[in-house]
Amino acid sequence: MTRVQLGEICERLSSGKSIKAVEVQDLGPYPVIGGNGLRGYAERYNFDGECAVIGRQGAACGNVRFHSGKAYMTEHAVVAVANESSDSHYLAYLLSTMSLGRLSAQSAQPGLSVKTLSKQEIYLPPLEKQKQVVEVLGRIDAKIEVNAKLNGYLAELAQTLYNDWFRDFGHWGGRMPSHWESGVLGDYVSVKRGGSPRPIQEYLSNEGLHWLKIADVSGVNGPYILEIKEHIKEEGLRKTAHLEPGSLVLSNSATPGIPKILSIGTCIHDGWLYFPQSEFTNEWLYCYFLNIRQELVRMANGSVFQNLKTDIVKDFEIIRPDDETLDSFQKIIAPLFGLMEACQQESKQLAALRDALLPKLMSGEIDVSKIDLTQLNSHLAAC
Fold first, then answer.
1. How many domains does the chain have?
2. 375 CB burial (10 A radius; 0-12, 13-18, 19+)
3. Given a cut of 50, is residue 303 above it in pLDDT?
């Protein structure tokens, strides 16, 4: 292996550019990539190619992932494009083992600086060896990507069905049924805000109750939250809200208007709204919030971080279909959401397999040349 500095093997090592929140949509032609992965989609892009994406600020600081294709890279991500001596995909795998988040304290400003990253020393194997490692790990990631694309298709189908039934009324011949009610969300749903024990640093813990943060939902390819990184002590429970699995949450600050369904129980801080009583199913509300998200973002206020006040959500206009219609729609939509959750669960297991192999392949503990790719393909096909 050759010892080099990161900057010496990169054709490009620089951060992306900022983008307005109203430009980030739930569907669109080009992914918007932030420090923690997918933020949404936009109508324009500022990158085209292969690169390692490094999170440079906040909870995503030091996170690394590979990207290929056109995308809009935001200012919270550092883009590393390999030169002819290295492979960008291998570079992403290698950097993900280096705990880059620890370097944030070495910068004058909070977060990772490009200058600090460029000076990091790494051991680089021959290009042929790099490509062999990428071949193995890439096959696992390819299966994860298939699941992500399937989830994208299922989400688009679910939203198309919702819009046809309840926004455009195409299912009803272009006109809203006359017996449906009109009101505001608060007429049919109770809207509550989470809470934060303070100072939060005194309550954070390595174990205890899950503590949901916005970073936990950034880059999640699907409606469900399966993993939460941080925990708080049980003493903080009286100052927050604890939600059971199956609860729906909506972000109301920083990146407002993101709906998610919890697959695990968690406490939520005051950057989340939740809905303890509702005349609608979680699946219906999820589609409803996606449909109105851009309007919610425009109504959010705040000079630095946008904030979606509880009253804005309570007072938002809504059409209340009859129970028979809601039941009929639920029978159609529930299987789609079930498939999306299954895809997310499978991808979680595949990611665990990849992460277990990664350091062993990088160190040479597992000889990559002896891995049976045919057997690996059979295993992945059976997933």
1. 2
2. exposed
3. no
Look at residues 293, 260, 286, 310 and name the one whose alpha carbon lies nearest to residue 162: 286
User: Residue 369 — pLDDT band, cuts 50, 70, 90?
Assistant: confident
Is there a single domain that holds both residue 189 and residue 312?
yes
Peptide bond into 199 cis (omega under 30): yes
Mark which of 124, 141, 160 sits at the end of a domain: 124
Cα distance between residue 73 and residue 22, in whole Å: 16
Alpha-carbon distances, residue 382 vs 15, 137, 143, 378, 379 (angstroms): 39, 17, 11, 6, 5
Split at pLDDT 50, 70, 90, the class of 379 is: low
Question: What would the pLDDT profile of 257-296 be if each residue is shown by its tens digit?
Answer: 999 999 999 999 999 999 999 999 999 999 999 999 989 8
Give CA–CA dist 250/247, Å, rounded.
10
Tell whether 120 and 195 lie within a shared domain: no
Task: Please tell me the number of Cα atoms within 13 Å of 225 on its side-chain side.
Answer: 30
Instruction: Give domain status of residue 373, yes or no.
Output: no
pLDDT bracket for residue 37 (50, 70, 90): confident
Q: Are residues 118 and 242 in the same domain?
A: no
Is 332 domain-assigned? no
CA count, 13 A, side-chain hemisphere, 344: 24
Q: Please indicate, yes or no, whether residues 308 and 207 belong to a single structural domain of this protein.
A: yes
Pair (67, 1) in one structural domain: yes
**Over 50: is that where the pLDDT of 201 sits?**
yes
